[in-house]
């Protein structure tokens, strides 16, 4: 992700997982939020693509939108993290972790003593795959990113069939 950030001179960086989709109007909402010079970064609300089929996922999605979970310490890349380039560079970018480097960046933003207004939760919800929820739970239970990378590879969806 650092390589992606270095490949552009854009004043704002948006990091989005490949299985996460922005809703209509997301970039306009982001531009409005960044009109406030105090805002240094933030993320979107979260919905899972399979949540209508699972009470557990509906609960998890709802919890991510409660006041308790609206803190940078509970932000994952599934939510689409945005940050001003200057703040990103002051934080020295992402650590080179195999997984959850986005969690570390959000934590670094919090630890940098950015004021509460500096991190904004945008009201629009991105839609993402639910397969990462086990990784998130394992992180909070103390599993290392290196170990979880092996799990992720093992449980990843099989490649799509190729048409010859």
From TrEMBL:
Query: In the record, what terms sit under GO molecular function?
Result: glycosyltransferase activity
Spell out the subcellular localization from the entry: Cell membrane
**GO CC annotations, alphabetized:** plasma membrane
Keywords annotated in UniProt: Cell membrane, Glycosyltransferase, Membrane, Transferase, Transmembrane, Transmembrane helix
Q: Where are the transmembrane segments?
A: 119-141
Entries under PANTHER family matching the protein: GLYCOSYLTRANSFERASE (PTHR43646), GLYCOSYLTRANSFERASE 2-LIKE DOMAIN-CONTAINING PROTEIN (PTHR43646:SF2)
- The protein's name is Lrguk protein
Native species = Symbiodinium natans
From the broadest rank down, the organism's phylogenetic lineage runs:
Eukaryota, Sar, Alveolata, Dinophyceae, Suessiales
């Amino acid at each position: 992700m650092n390589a992606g950030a270095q490949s552009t001179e854009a004043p704002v960086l948006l990091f989005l997982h490949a299985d996460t989709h922005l809703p209509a109007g997301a970039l306009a909402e982001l531009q409005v939020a960044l009109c406030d010079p105090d805002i240094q970064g933030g993320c979107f609300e979260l919905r899972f693509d399979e949540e209508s089929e699972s009470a557990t996922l509906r609960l998890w999605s709802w919890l991510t939108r409660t006041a308790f979970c609206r803190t940078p310490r509970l932000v994952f890349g599934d939510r689409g993290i945005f940050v001003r380039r200057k703040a990103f560079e002051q934080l020295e970018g992402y650590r080179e972790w195999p997984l959850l480097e986005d969690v570390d960046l959000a934590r670094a933003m919090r630890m940098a003593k950015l004021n509460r207004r500096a991190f904004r939760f945008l009201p629009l919800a991105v839609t993402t795959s639910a397969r990462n929820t086990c990784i998130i739970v394992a992180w909070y239970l103390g599993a290392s990113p290196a170990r979880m990378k092996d799990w992720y590879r093992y449980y990843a969806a099989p490649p799509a069939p190729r048409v010859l």
